[in-house]
Automatic annotation (TrEMBL):
Keyword Membrane carried by entry: yes
Domain of life according to the entry: Bacteria
Alphabetized UniProt keyword annotations: Cell cycle, Cell division, Membrane, Transmembrane, Transmembrane helix
Protein species of origin: Pedococcus badiiscoriae
GO biological process, one term: cell division
Sequence segments annotated as region (Disordered): 136-163
Organism classification: Bacteria, Bacillati, Actinomycetota, Actinomycetes, Micrococcales
Protein name: Cell division protein FtsB
A Pfam short name: DivIC
Parts of the chain that traverse the membrane: 15-34
Length: 163
C-alpha cells in the first residue's frame, strides 16, 4: 500500500502533535501569569514606598510629640515668652537697644535706597523708588561693597535696623 502512512511517519506526527500541544500550554500559562506577576511586583513596590512614607511620618510624629512635651514644661514656655515676645516678670525692667549708627554692611539681594529728602515732591520720591526697584538685586554689587545707587540727588542713605 503506497498511500497508507507507515508506522514511523505516524510516530513522528504524534511527537510533533505532543510538542505543539505542550508549547500551546506554555504559551497559555505565560499569557495568564505574566500580567499577574507584573501587577504583583508593582504592588510590592507600592507597599515598599508606603512603608518608607509611614516611617517618615512616624519620625515626624515623634518629633512633634517631643516638641509638645517641651511646650508642656512651664520653664520652656517662660523662656520662649522672654525670647520671642520680650515678656518680663513683675518688677523686672526691659531695655531694648536701638543702634543709632547706619549699617555699613549691605544685605545681599537688596538695592541701596537713596535717603528721602523733604525738598522733593512725593511723586518724585515714588518714581525714584520705582527706578531703584527696577534696577533690582542684579544691579547691586556683592555684599560688603557699595552698590550703585539710582537717583538725581547723588546721596545714598541706609536704614538702620532695630534689634
Amino acid at each position: 500500500m503506497a498511500g497508507a502512512p507507515t508506522f514511523p511517519e505516524r510516530k513522528s506526527s504524534r511527537g510533533v502533535l505532543r510538542v505543539v500541544v505542550l508549547a500551546s500550554i506554555f504559551v497559555l500559562l505565560a499569557v495568564t501569569l505574566v500580567p499577574t506577576l507584573r501587577s504583583y511586583l508593582r504592588q510590592q513596590g507600592e507597599i515598599d514606598a508606603l512603608r518608607g512614607h509611614v516611617a517618615v511620618q512616624r519620625q515626624g510624629v515623634s518629633d512633634l510629640q517631643k516638641e509638645q512635651a517641651r511646650w508642656n514644661d512651664d520653664v520652656y514656655v517662660m523662656q520662649q515668652a522672654r525670647e520671642r515676645l520680650k515678656f518680663v516678670k513683675v518688677g523686672e525692667k526691659s531695655y531694648t537697644v536701638i543702634d543709632g549708627k547706619a549699617s555699613t554692611k549691605a544685605l545681599p539681594g537688596l538695592a541701596k535706597v537713596p535717603a528721602a529728602s523733604s525738598n522733593r515732591p512725593w511723586y518724585g520720591q515714588l518714581w525714584q523708588s520705582v527706578q531703584v526697584a527696577d534696577a533690582g538685586p542684579a544691579a547691586t554689587a556683592p555684599p560688603g561693597t557699595s552698590g550703585p545707587t539710582t537717583g538725581t540727588s547723588g546721596s545714598a542713605g541706609t536704614t538702620s535696623s532695630a534689634k
